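Quarterly update, task 2.4: S-adenosylmethionine-bound model.
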Amino acid sequence: MAKVEPFPFPNEIYPEDWFSRLAREDLFPGDGPIELDLGCGDGSFLARMAQHYPERNFLGVERLLGRVRKVSRKSIMSHSTNVRVLRVDSNYAVGWLLPLGFASRIHFLCPDPWPKKKHANRRQMCRIDFLAALHSLLVDDGELLFMTDDEPYFLEALEAQKGCDFFVREPWEEGDFFYARTDFEEQWLAAGRTMHRLRLRKLPRS
Ligand SMILES: C[S@@+](CC[C@H](N)C(=O)[O-])C[C@H]1O[C@@H](n2cnc3c(N)ncnc32)[C@H](O)[C@@H]1O
């Protein structure tokens, strides 16, 4: 069982047991769809999505406390009950903590590109083990949405995805469906950069 702390941080989740997977009901009450935002930053995307889709739930995972608190403050100010945030490393959350088969969509937006060769293992979208772990968190037919301004990271992620037979690529152009802008996306667009998008749908594993 996880405990949700009372005011002033009602939207932050503090697991009582960090060594077992949480249950779906530890994250949100009811059975509305849950979407996961990995490395959610200041929560701009979560807040906008939660307002647009009040019937859905949005869970952010973020390792920096200052950013977690920004998510909290935004949720309190907008009286959002469909946003929660978990302060933990995303590798640990995905591999060990989050429930299996709980997420209707996983958003992985503008992650740090880690361009140095020695940091290649930190480019999570290029790791088959990470993609397999994300696959296990999704409901049947669930989707993984990845966006970056970094072309080398994008091309490497495309290559990695070709090597896994448990996701299929779906079309995704800007404006195909409502998709809130993220804080970093706004910054990159203002700097004249292009966003690259990859939308993957879960296939059953053979
Ligand atoms: C470049 S920012 C993008 C934030 C947000 N997704 C956006 O598009 O505005 C990357 C975020 O991921 C977080 N982050 C990086 N590695 C992480 C990890 N291993 N676990 C959890 N959060 C991580 C960083 O702290 C940062 O807030």
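Highlight for this quarter: The radius of gyration is 16 Å.
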